[in-house]
Amino acid sequence: MINMILIVGIGGFLGSVFRMFCINVISKFFPYSISFGTLFVNILGSFAIGLCFSYAQNKGLSPLLKNFISTGFLGAFTTFSTFSYENLMLLQNGDYFNFFLNIILNVALCLLAVWLGMIIFK
């Protein structure tokens, strides 16, 4: 059990650092009202979790590696709490267009990314 906790913790550390890096880089290129950095991270994380679970289901993946990737790295990498906060800020600022646009883009594109990730190993 201690091995699993350490593996998930290491994955979480790496995922959160990579998230910070990605958001900072994307935000420099797309400094708009909605956070395209968060959108990018959510899409990439959704695609990666689709890949991970599809690969684990079809090819097999050790529980340790599966938890490192999905619970640790991707759990820290994807930013649904940040997504929620950013949407609340848009809503409180009365920016309804960007509020709805951000929700629609994140949900639709992340669902698409999970599906694409899953079909790769079928």
Automatic annotation (TrEMBL):
Catalytic activity: fluoride(in) = fluoride(out)
Record carries keyword Transport: yes
Membrane topology (UniProt): Multi-pass membrane protein
UniProt keyword list: Cell inner membrane, Cell membrane, Ion channel, Ion transport, Membrane, Metal-binding, Sodium, Transmembrane, Transmembrane helix, Transport
Residues reported in the UniProt entry to bind Na(+): G75, T78
Transmembrane segments: 29-56, 68-85, 97-121
PANTHER family referenced in this protein's UniProt entry, alphabetically: FLUORIDE EXPORT PROTEIN 1-RELATED
The protein, known as: Fluoride-specific ion channel FluC
Organism: Campylobacter aviculae
